[in-house]
Amino acid sequence: MDTKLFFDQVEPATILGKACYAVVGNPIGHSQSPWIHQRYAEQTAQAMYYGRMQPSIDQFHIYAQAFFQQGGQGLSVTVPFKLEACTFAKQLTPRAQLAGAVNTLWQDGGQIYGDNTDGLGLVRDLVAQGIALKGTKILILGAGGAARGIIGPLLAEGPVAIMAANRSLGKAKQLAILFGELAQSVGATLRAESIEDLETQASSGTLSQFDLVINATAASLDILSPLSNHLAAQLFQPRTFAYDLVYGKPTPFMQQALQHGSRVSDGLGMLVEQAAAAFLIWRGAALSSAINPRQVLAELRHALA
Ligand code: ATR
What we know:
Structural class: alpha/beta
Radius of gyration: 20 Å
CATH architecture of the largest domain: 3-Layer(aba) Sandwich
CATH superfamily of the largest domain: NAD(P)-binding Rossmann-like Domain
Order of helices and strands: HEHEHEHEHEEHEHEHHEHEHEHEHH
Number of helices: 14
Helix content: 40-55%
Oligomer: single chain
CATH class of the largest domain: Alpha Beta
Distance between the termini: 42 Å
Bound molecules: 2'-monophosphoadenosine-5'-diphosphate
Strand order of the largest sheet: 2-1-3-5-6-4
Largest sheet: 6 strands, mixed
């Protein structure tokens, strides 16, 4: 077994005396995480090295184990390894348990811990953009891992209603069951629909109105929208906020929302905010007043423009 995987790719002088972290995914070349974490390390004067690891699809456990055995302190986990990271961690935070996925791993006292900061990252980004979630009606499109990661933290903000709408109704129903108790405990209604049902409601004029519509489907990756133009026309109003979890160019979903005068956002702020939460788990919550995620976001947007 080749366990040289990470540290032998890095010049020893680069990591000498530094705490080592990395993002692990496949593919990973495009990841902005090393840049983001390096900026947080600069803002807080932490001696920290943050690299990249790209195991083949069946080698996550081998790479992660070797990384921690060789003294690595923490890993960010991205597609397609978030479910495997969940089984790799020996201790999960309650929100990682509910999400069924882990995006942040660390080692403490010989034990591997796992958390999921994606939903918190989304909530922080929404709040920073002036979106108050208390008392709102939220539509989440999609019922895969991305949707499952955000529902818990959104419910914790006290919306009156969340509707999970998916292409296949069965998966949306599973989500509604999984988060039913949490929804009840915060006094929110949580319903499942198929996107086709929403299309029918749009045609019959019975579609509910939502304050926030979140695209958590993988459709944007194929440059598609999960919504027909007809449904989008009923859903998006000037008072609606449309958020796509992916980042980069405006997605077809965002373009539909813009056409109807809605405010839109991509998921770059969520990426920067979930990284901030991971950074504070690793380096200590006392640094929270020293990091400035919104400045890092502005710099990153400028760099990507
Ligand atoms: P992720 O971890 O990114 O959520 P996933 O678990 O594979 O990935 O889930 C992908 C989600 O995007 C699913 O909700 C999928 O719908 P189905 O469950 O019906 O397959 C949704 N999805 C993918 N492409 C889509 C498209 N073109 N239109 C609508 N939904 C789409």
